[in-house]
User: Fold these one by one.
Assistant:
Number 1:
Amino acid sequence: MQFLPKTIPEIQPEILPVNESPPELVTFDVSGMKCAGCAKAVERQLMQYSGVISACVNLAVEVATVECQPGAVDAEALAKKLTDNGFPSQSRSGENQQEAEAATIERRGQEIRQQIKQLTIALILIILSGLGHVLGTKAPILSNIWFHWGLATLALLLPGRPIIVDGCRSLWRNAPNMNTLVALGAVTAYTASNAALLFPRMGWECFFDEPVMLLGFILLGKTLEQQARRRAASALQALIALQPAKARLVDFKLASLDLRSEELPLDSTSAAYDPQYIEIPADRVRVGEWLQVLPGEKIPVDGEICEGKTTIDESMLTGESMPVLKQPGDTVAAGTINKSGAVVMRATRTGKETTVAQMVALVQAAQTRKAPIQNLADTVAGYFVYGVMGISLLTFLFWYFAGTHIWPSVLLGHDMGHGAMGIGHGVLGMGNELPIIHYQSPLLLSLKLAIAVLVIACPCALGLATPTAILVGSGIGAERGLLIRGGDVLERVHQLDTVVFDKTGTLTTGNLTLTDYLPIFQNSEWDLNSDINVGNKQDVCSTIDGVSGRVDSKLLQIAAAVERGACHPIAAAILLEAQQQGLPLLAAEDFCTEPGLGVSALVEGRRVFAGNAEWMKEQGVAVATELSESLQGKTAVYVASEGVLLGVIGLKDTLRPDAKAAVERLRGMGLRVMMLTGDTPSAAAATAQQLDLTAADVLAGVRPEGKARAIATLQAQGCKVAVVGDGINDAPALAQADVGIGLHCGTDVAVETAQIVLMRNALMDVVESIELGRATFNKIRQNLFWAFGYNTLGIPVAAGILLPATGILLSPAAAGAFMAFSSVSVVTNSLFLRRGFRA
């Protein structure tokens, strides 16, 4: 059955516009955020500033990214505004990235140390309070009510003071947060217990242990949460730490830097190890300067090896553990480690332009971009604390005025004395009475339920659900050379049903070789001086091997002269063949490239065209049908001048070794795999046959501007499309796709356009990036389900919904414990993502 790849119909669906003047991005480190409500408050404050287009705040990494009109926003003034409103902030603009990250790590370390100190005090108070209940009358001092009053007072003044102060300030600024809820609960419980202690005739019980345990559990949860968040951010910190601090600047003309002899051992006394050099900060190296790198040192900037031979450990950039051999002419990336030999390199990219700096920027940007699924959580978070305070008030009013009258049995309970643990309050609360059965006060019961509602609600879980999962997922990707640009990309990855591959340089190696050669010149005025005239042959095409390498030098020279003006694998292959034949390049000028068709130039005063059959047709050059058929399955480059066909060159590409396995894996994941190429249908068919792609899954003969239309056509049919490409021609399609996946070996424009960048340039990484995206998004959904489910179930239980039927009464301390560990569970669940992606 004949293979007939599809061509693209001439339709004009809407194509995504390209923003010619992108907005300015400003990044801030923001501290003082306690929950999702704080993050939402920071976003509101940023959006109120003139010139700000959008703002995105990440609670997990405490970073705010502001998109603003170019030159319209003063970053320092904006940071000061946030600081004045209770969220100490600092702009990252103009700072050394390593120093800024080191300062952030130190600040967070101090916060954790302070929390551990406060937690230690709280735990000591909890232990003393618990001993009073356990020992009872055996330790009169520990069971004395005034002793427990002292413990509760110390709990509020020492470990609880920062929480109470921050909670009150947040409420005063009209931006209540988690600390506001905890402060209201703890202070209310303490105040009610003081009233019971001072006015025993009211018949209330004292529960001084409630604020002690409540604050202790909250601090324990916050400490565990901070540690988990620190682990989640470890991958980015390791990536930033890759960037070297120093570089060894040398004069390459020095004789002492001749490293051409052999690799040098670490203990070598060669002059190469003692050159005249100046040690400077790596971020001050300029392009073109010469640097020396000794074994065991990090490559300071991106560059090219000039002298010496070594092996480089690139594992932190690509995830590949095996060192890579590097010789003169090979490129090296900043942050990789020189393993074996001393080398001299020339800097080609420095500062923020280096590969590792771009990776860090991509990962940092990814961690601040939200998934659309987070929008609901953000909307809820903006009103969450107000809603909880309202529910708490309604709980109090309901039970005090109605609930205790409808179900009077709920007032019957054990006087567990002080805090429901067996200490009576007695007259002035001496604590010597035995537990007795009594009726609780309706006011006290209503108050305890209202407090429980305040402290069980957890806005932190809502705020951490998405960013912690993205933090871990992007970190795993960075370790494996998979750079995913953000949560919105992860959500689109989860929705994908179609993956479209570019052919040349993506599914294939892009290293074309000349396989067929045909000079046709009998009607040409150009004297090709060839003794090979196959113009009257029936097969009209000879392979290079078939003519024992006797290719027509003049035609190859003409083709190479024209292709010198193009940047394409075809041009590279023709130029390489001319170089290997030892042919001098003809003088050429006035180059003109027509993307997807070919290139033209003035060669020896004549306009020469080199390109595909369509390009020839547009120039009025006839191409015989049998000539095209003879090059079936290969890429044909026709060369013509002044309306006359001079000849044709056939080239063939080789499939990447992992291409077929990647296609099969993607199909196994339920994805449709397609190929999109500007190559001829016959060449596309040959590649498709090796990959077991059907004709319906091949789009051939597509010009660059048509690639975006082809993707738009698929999207109009309801497909969620990912495009995998590496060249300039692929950039429009990458931008149009739901998810663009670019190979890092490709052009800068393709990498910039893509939403996922593959550092290893391996097609199996396409599979792994989609698997990682799906797994990360599933974690986000699990976290959000838990966060909403916890609050949806926990708040009614704390409000006493189970009390009439089951007698279950959730104490404020127990509610605080549930609240503290709910946010810990979200972060821990995100960390479990690493289990499925172990190296």
Number 2:
Amino acid sequence: MTTNTILLLLLSLVIAGGLSYFQYFFKAKNKSNVVVFLAFLRFLAIFGLLVLLINPIMTKNSLEITKTPLAIAVDNSSSITVLKSDKKAEELYQKIISNPALKEKFEIQSYQFDADFKPSDKFDFKGKQTNLDEVSRNLKSINKNLIFPTVIITDGNQTTGNDYVYRFDPVNKVYPLVVGDTTTFLDLKINQLNVNKYAFHKNKFPVEVFLQYSGDKNANADFTISQGNTVVAKEKISFSASKKTATLNLLLPADKVGLQIFKASISSGSKEKNSYNNNKNFAVEVIDQKSTIAIVSAINHPDIAALKRSIEVNAQRKVILTKPNDINQLQEVSVLVLYQPTSAFKAIFDNNKLAGTNTFIITGNNTDFNFLNQQQNSLVFKMSGQREDYLSEFESQFNLFAIENIGFENFPPLQNLFGTITTNGNVSVLFSSKIRNVATNAPLLAFAENQGKRTAFLLGENSWKWRLQSHIDNQSFDKYDVFIDKIIQYLASTTSRKSLVVTHESFYNSGEAIVINAQYFNKNYEFDEKARLTITVTNAETKLDKNYDLLKGNNSFSANLDGLAAGKYNFNVKELNSNTVYSSHFEILDFDIEKQFVNPDVTKLKQLALQTNGKAFFEDQADDLIQQLLENKEYKSIEKNVSTKTPLIDWIWLLILIAIVLTTEWFVRKYNGML
């Protein structure tokens, strides 16, 4: 306390004593024990109130010891159980946390990790994935700006996330405690299998397989891919102590339409410790999407050749070129491309009113716009005879299909007759037009849908220059050809736009995230944020149902179906306000990535220890690990003097004491008839 505070307290003593003396003793005839007691109570009350007014600051000093954190992270994934090390891992954990010397030196922090990371001192070893990267990321955040050691009880077999070796802070030592049998066993394994999710009917699709061998002797193996009881591919592979891996590239026939399930297997005559990793199921959705595209034109133009090349990049597309008067070839086509139509196209338009084939109309300087106004009503043309160059402006709100902006604004202008073009009805604009960077508010590339029939409009010629410009920008025609393929894909589809659109895969692997996404559109085809969507998932074999609500995200609703067992499932997504329903199915393939291992990954764990200047230990070296932690003089407890200042007015007991004193004084005076 300061000198001023001490002087004020002394003055308070004098004032409290003086007032008590004046009330009870000055000119008092009776100086009994009761009066003395009352004077004492009054003295205490007045002094207490004056002390509160002065409000001296009470300072309390205490010593606080801060220990260095010791993070212990236990691998809670099922691979620990597969390696029959779950009990050992639990035993090692208990041995470390119960060591009295470690508890005295460190602040022990217990965590578990599999796909996620969280504080825990109980483990069930049922995690479906292993992500050691999560350990490094979370510990950096929890013990920020601290120097601390980390003990990781694990087999080191990571199945998801970034490579953990260089993710840990090199300033903080990591001590991997390796669990699992490190003895080398003979093991054949399908390490990885790459295949496209989709294939086209009557084509062949590639399968890339990476095989791995563990062992010291020469071994011969048979690799097969089968569908049901039919073997569709077979290869013989040889391994040795110096040849531990093999890569196979196979082509499989896509003979049947729909979801096709295959099984890849590798086997040898020798007995293996783990045969689960000898098999891997995979699936391919075979699509029958072959289509014929007819380009109809009365003139010759470079646009036609460029368009034909872009379309036929997709092997499922076949382009035929025809004149307007030859409508016999147009009976089986999927899309009609009408290049600069004139009155000579009247028979085609009349025939297509009955056929209902989707069309792609491209206009230019030779187009008869009066005729075109008579044949369709999606766009209204009021054109002059003057030619004009139109630049494109990409409309990012376009949502009929996903499209990447590949620099369309920098493409050369298209040429068309000058005039006004207005939309009529349900028209979606992908490109609007500009004249010398002045917006015209008119479409340049637009799409219309009327009674299930789709029409695309490209309002200008010389699009062959766009393809060349794309090649200059990207050293390839690929991006432009994908752009054209998206347009043809949209037109080749006969599916009209639905109010409930659901996105999902036809198959998933066990342990993968299974997410169903949905969008619901109102009658104006606007995304409805107030929609109420639910999903019912039914196991095709057991007939058991599970119900979920779809949660709103960014312009979509989604449901996470993780935890479903392998098998076939049917599901219904329902919008409750309108009772709109979407029904489909998917299959979960039996694949447990945590069962793929026969040994701990000692090499990587040693690399991690070396990277952080730590050291890797094995199951029988736990005592050595404890000893090293105890002997390391980097980790010392820090003793701090903590000074706590408390204003006396915050001391509630003083207020209570004053209240008790005043109350007691009043009762004593009342009892003795002094009021």
